[in-house]
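Backbone geometry tokens:
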Amino acid sequence: MPASTADPADPSLPTPPILTPHIAYIDIISNMLIGKTPQFISTYRATFCSTSPTSLGLAAYTNCDDRVLYIIANTTGPEMCTCAQAPEDVILYARLANSTLQLHIPDAERRLPYDYPLAPRTVSRPINPSHIPHIVTAAFRAAGRIYALALVPGFHRRSAAVRSLVERLVQPLSLLLEADYPIDVGLIWVCIVGGAASVRGDCLSVLLGWRLEVEVKRGRVGEDSFWNIMTTLMEGWGEDDDTREGMGGWVDVMYGLYTNVSS
């Protein structure tokens, strides 16, 4: 996807030229965490739907394909935020986002080496640098699908569909965490969404718990966003984990994590 060469002075541009990759990423992720429409949603849609799509630089900034982030941004578009009284519309838009995230998966992403040994875990497992963008994109893709399903009334973390997606997320995420890929570089949102859909003792909670132990051994207790996230998630996994309906307060969990990460 080529970088944009549009003239900033062109009055037809949907947004001012201040939309840097950093601003775009924060706009998408922070608004999703609190269930609001991204400020530049029209730009993401126009870029995604363009016959000759340009890049906002998100891939270079996060290692995640721009188009996947555009789709994720659309999950909290104005339609989703204004149809709260029409559950059938919520289901329609959520299913559309989930389906779109399954389309146009590059062969390189499909062929990722998920046969890496998973035990014993280590933070020094080698990883091919050329695989990293595809692995990060796969992690965002799986997390985006989980997020879309979580918006559907009656969402249940123990449903077969959700359990399957959590397992799918663990595949790329384990490769990144075992290669010591920086969690704060784009993986915070992935960990929050996956963790909020996780249940005590499942493959994702075990993976994140292992990484937390690594951080403890490194003496990073309470020093970063990951520690705040894990503290909140572990509290959620430990309280009425077998009896909570649906997401058990999805918005509250997400907002609490967003507050911790932003503080």
